[in-house]
Amino acid sequence: MTASSNAYEYLDNVGPRDSEEARLAAVRRYRMVDQPVEDAYDRIAFVAGALFETPIATVSLVEQDRVWLAACQGLPGVREVGREPGLCASVIAQDDVYVINNAAVDPRTLDHPLVRGELGLRFYAAAPIRTHDGYRLGTVNVIDSRPRDAGQRQLKALEHLAAIVADELELRLMVIRSAAAEQRMRDTVN
Fold it and tell me: Are 83 and 162 in contact (CB under 8 A)?
């Protein structure tokens, strides 16, 4: 369901949670894709990388045919990657933290371009960003080029960071709605 620019984008207006179309509508209502990096998300990616001591950490949003990096530490200039299964695109299919200890031998990621390619991804841990109405929009994730394990406390921290992103997105949505309401009032007065 597509809301017009004049309508409120209420949380319950996007449709059944099991629909990919509804999930994509939920991603788009926050108007983050194709936007500059915002400090809040950049700080969250930094903290995630610091907690895991990984060279790469991102806040991602999974779009229809790509993964948009709303923030990225450790991959300068990279703002999007493909939506191949095994990493971010697989995380949004579940509620739990997703961990790949050694992507070179894990059947879920053997053929992924980030594993087979120049990056040589080996370790990946991600928590899904879940909206308050139940949509999984993307991930907060950490990446390393060497195999490793993650502690339960680290994984719980990753879940909390994903929840903070969800909270930030709700604040963003309130600003979007407020601006739309203000514009409607101006249009009514004029």
Answer: no
Residues in the chain, total: 190
Q: Do the Cβ atoms of 89 and 76 come closer than 8 Å?
A: no
Residue 159 · residue 129 · CB < 8 Å: no
Calculate the CA 80 to chain-centre distance: 11
Crossing angle for the helix pair 39-52 and 152-189, to the nearest 10 degrees:
180
Q: Count the alpha carbons within 13 Å of 148 in the hemisphere toward its beta carbon.
A: 16
Reported as a single tens digit per residue, the pLDDT across 39-89 is 999 999 999 999 999 999 999 999 999 999 999 999 999 999 999 999 999
- Partnered with residue 127 across adjacent β-strands are 140
Answering whether pTM is above 0.70, one says yes
9 closest CA partner among 188, 187, 186, 175: 175
Q: Tell me which residue has tokens 């502690």.
A: 151
The closest of 33, 15, 11 to 23, measured between CA atoms, is 15
Q: How far apart are CA 128 and CA 89, in angstroms?
A: 10
